[in-house]
């Protein structure tokens, strides 16, 4: 299985990029993991929120295949504990999912067509985080999930 994280806009704060890089390197020991960064839209002052979401959706769809299992990181999605999330990852591996794609949307969320395409939505918390922080939290949780699956001492319960 391959796991891909698609994110809109680049990460600007070095402390976040350093953290993301740290966990991406660690993940390589467990899974084929990659990140796709779609550049943030420019000249959005004259666009409505719906128009921005539609343009972002068009960019996202260029990176998706029909067979991808698409998971939106969405505040209204299902919540998991770290152990439950690791079991969810394991379930996808056992189902022989070829490419599990997680998507972090833009500042206004997702276009309705992206929600239609998604296979599921998950939430990292009931709290709202910046899109920059979500990147770090997600890759750390993904790393944690694999250490749980391997019985390694990273996660304490």
UniProtKB/TrEMBL annotation:
The keyword Nucleus is assigned to this record: no
A molecular function GO annotation: rRNA (pseudouridine-N3-)-methyltransferase activity
Keyword S-adenosyl-L-methionine: yes
Major localisation: cytoplasm
Catalysis: reaction(s): pseudouridine(1915) in 23S rRNA + S-adenosyl-L-methionine = N(3)-methylpseudouridine(1915) in 23S rRNA + S-adenosyl-L-homocysteine + H(+)
Enzyme Commission number: 2.1.1.177
Binding site for S-adenosyl-L-methionine: 73, 105, 124-129
Subcellular location: Cytoplasm
One Pfam family here: SPOUT_MTase
Stored InterPro entries: Alpha/beta_knot_MTases (IPR029028), RlmH-like (IPR003742), tRNA_m1G_MTases_N (IPR029026)
SUPFAM superfamilies, per database record: alpha/beta knot
This protein's GO CC annotations: cytoplasm
Subunit text: Homodimer.
Role this protein plays: Specifically methylates the pseudouridine at position 1915 (m3Psi1915) in 23S rRNA.
Classification via PANTHER family: METHYLTRANSFERASE, RIBOSOMAL RNA LARGE SUBUNIT METHYLTRANSFERASE H
Protein name: Ribosomal RNA large subunit methyltransferase H
Gene: rlmH
């Amino acid at each position: 299985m391959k796991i891909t994280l698609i994110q809109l806009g680049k990460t600007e704060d070095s402390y976040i990029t350093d953290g993301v890089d740290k966990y991406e390197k660690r993940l390589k020991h467990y899974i084929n993991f990659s990140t796709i960064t779609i550049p943030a839209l420019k000249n959005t002052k004259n666009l409505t929120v719906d128009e921005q979401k539609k343009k972002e959706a068009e960019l996202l769809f260029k990176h998706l295949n029909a067979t991808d299992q698409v998971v939106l990181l969405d505040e209204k999605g299902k919540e998991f504990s770290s152990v439950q999330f690791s079991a969810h990852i394991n379930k996808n591996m056992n189902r022989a999912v070829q490419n599990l794609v997680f998507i972090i949307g833009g500042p206004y969320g997702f276009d309705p067509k992206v929600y239609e395409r998604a296979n599921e939505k998950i939430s990292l918390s009931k709290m709202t985080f910046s899109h920059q922080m979500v990147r770090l939290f997600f890759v750390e949780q993904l790393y944690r999930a694999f250490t749980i699956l391997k019985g390694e001492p990273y996660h304490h319960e």
